[in-house]
Design a protein that fits this description.
Helices cover 48% and strands 14% of the residues. With 264 residues, it is α/β, with parallel strands linked by helices. The protein has 2 domains: 7-191 and 231-255, NAD(P)-binding Rossmann-like Domain (Rossmann fold, 3-Layer(aba) Sandwich); 195-229, no CATH class. The model has no long low-confidence stretch (mean pLDDT 97). It binds nicotinamide-adenine-dinucleotide (NAD).
């Protein structure tokens, strides 16, 4: 197991990619604080994780990544409950779809506040904790969920894309600042992942482009060289690798998990 003896904190883990990462982390030996805006879903995933490994320490908490006070308190509570923290996955994210000419400030702020500012607030609280509590020489590792849209913009997603480009830039800068303290910071860039976010996007895109949802899904498939939509577990396995010592010489990277949809 890749994460035995390590303690983690994850955001947006009540469903989708975050849920899959949480379960994979616990399966690979980590104790874990599982957070989400929706406490009931975080608790449900904590129950699933506990069933996977009965000796794991698993905690569930409510967290809105836009709220600095909430973020700092949750990181401290999680560390208290688990005994320490060495791993963090900042995964919470949202999307919406509109042409720029129709975009209002509320759409922009919603995407930027959760996707970009949320990553800043969570990373800041986690790194502050690592610097205060960490033993020199201990492995500490953060993974931020960016997106393929953080490297290659897509029409109808300008605001989302801008927020995910921000995640990658922020990840690189933080990696530079924390490398000397032995804290690695990387990002993962998923492609077309089958989650509730994708279901919402397929409907929006179908309406905006005058297509059926099935035609939109066929478009996605044509853009994926490996020829199938991505599963949350495809992302989770790469995140666990990045968190683990197997990736000890990697920091500041934004790793594509897209079935080959982008190659840079
Ligand atoms: N699904 C995809 O195709 C895809 C592709 C690339 C990147 N991503 C990214 O992966 C991450 C997870 O996406 P998903 O597809 O699993 O989405 P999802 O909508 O299925 O799940 C997102 C989770 O984040 C939580 N959340 C929303 N707002 C929050 C907030 N303010 N604070 C804390 N938690 C909050 C939700 O409650 C939900 O549990 C996001 O960052 C997303 O941008 C998704």
């Amino acid at each position: 197991m890749l994460l035995t003896g390590l303690h983690g904190f994850i955001t947006g883990a009540g469903t989708g990619i975050g849920r899959a990462i949480a379960l994979e982390m616990v399966r690979e030996g980590a104790d874990l604080a599982i957070t989400d805006l929706d406490l009931a879903s975080a608790r449900k995933v904590a129950g699933e994780a506990q069933a996977l490994r009965t000796d794991a320490r698993v905690w569930a908490g409510q967290l809105d990544v836009r709220d600095a006070v909430n973020v700092t308190a949750r990181v401290a509570e999680a560390a208290n409950y688990l005994g320490s923290l060495e791993l963090a996955v900042n995964n919470a994210g949202v999307s919406s779809m509109k042409r720029v000419v129709d975009l209002d400030e509320a759409d922009w702020d919603f995407n930027m506040d959760i996707n970009a500012k949320g990553i800043f607030l969570c990373c800041q609280a986690e790194v502050r904790y690592f610097l205060r509590q960490g033993q020199p020489g201990t492995m500490r590792s953060i993974v931020n969920t960016a997106s393929m849209a953080g490297k290659k913009a897509a029409a109808l997603l300008a605001h989302y894309s801008a927020s995910k480009f921000a995640v990658i830039g922020f990840t690189q800068a933080l990696a530079l600042e924390t490398a000397a303290d032995g804290i690695r910071v990387n990002a993962v860039c998923p492609g077309y992942v089958r989650t509730s976010m994708q279901e919402r996007e397929v409907i929006w895109e179908a309406n905006l482009r005058g297509m059926t949802p099935d035609e939109v899904r066929q478009d996605y498939l044509r853009a994926i060289p490996l020829g199938r939509l991505e599963e949350p577990e495809d992302v989770a396995r790469v995140v666990v690798f990045l968190l683990s010592d197997r990736a000890a010489y990697m920091t500041g990277q934004a790793i594509n998990v897209t079935g080959g949809s982008i190659m840079f």
